[in-house]
Amino acid sequence: MPRETTYGPDEECPPLKKDVLRLYSMRFCPYAQRTRLMLEHKNIKYETINVNLKKKPKWIYALNASGKVPILQLNDDVIYESFATCEWLDDVFPGPRLTPEDQKTRIRDRMLMYGFSEIIPQFYAIGREEDKTRAIKKFKRLLKPYEDVLTGDFFGGSAPNLLDFNIWPWIERLGVLKAKAGFELSPKEFPKFTQWICDMHELPAVKSTRFNDQDHTYFLSTVFQGEPEFDYGLVPTAQL
């Protein structure tokens, strides 16, 4: 039976069960959270194998040569890369359809999803650099298009779509930047986006996958120190 704590380099992978969807993940990984959000929002049953991403088990490379998570496995099907896992879940499983039907909206959202990869490094730059001014300025500039396209509660209008869930994990971690660097988004500069954050917090999928600011801040501090505590919150710190 899979457990919540991570599987390390000397441990065997639990046997795969027929017709049971499996997610290979890491509890604090924002990329894996993209997939977890989709799974929860679409009410898909699955089991989770959490992997030590610093001292990886060898069998993870047989599933994804990069050794990265998330990875989904269902019988002989193996899907990796967070965008691909989200699209596959939306295509294959029933539940609310999260891919826009309108071509223009679909292409717009795809551009914004890929464009968000330019924003992600700014989170770490703001948290690490002594002179944060340039990183903050770039972060705001890159975020402005997301403010501009919001016309409803979510990027999907009255309900969330793929774009909402694909950018959310890093927005959830904005509290870390407030704690570490005193940075937070201003409702005056980003009125629609800051309201979107409030609305996202109320979604059941977000509630079931999120960590609080304190947990995110502590985990990232262990990452910056070179010894990430993947099982933080499951195992007393002294035992890690």
UniProtKB/TrEMBL annotation:
Protein name per UniProt: Glutathione S-transferase omega
InterPro entries listed in its UniProt record: Glutathione-S-Trfase_C-like, Glutathione-S-Trfase_C_sf, Glutathione_S-Trfase, Glutathione_S-Trfase_N, GST_omega, GST_Omega/HSP26, Thioredoxin-like_sf
GO biological process, one term: glutathione metabolic process
Origin species: Owenia fusiformis (Polychaete worm)
GO MF annotation, one: methylarsonate reductase activity
Known function: Exhibits glutathione-dependent thiol transferase activity. Has high dehydroascorbate reductase activity and may contribute to the recycling of ascorbic acid. Participates in the biotransformation of inorganic arsenic and reduces monomethylarsonic acid (MMA).
Keyword Oxidoreductase in annotation: yes
SUPFAM superfamilies on file: GST C-terminal domain-like (SSF47616), Thioredoxin-like (SSF52833)
GO CC term, one of those recorded: cytoplasm
A Pfam cross-reference name: GST_C_2
Reactions accelerated catalytically: methylarsonate + 2 glutathione + H(+) = methylarsonous acid + glutathione disulfide + H2O; RX + glutathione = an S-substituted glutathione + a halide anion + H(+); L-dehydroascorbate + 2 glutathione = glutathione disulfide + L-ascorbate
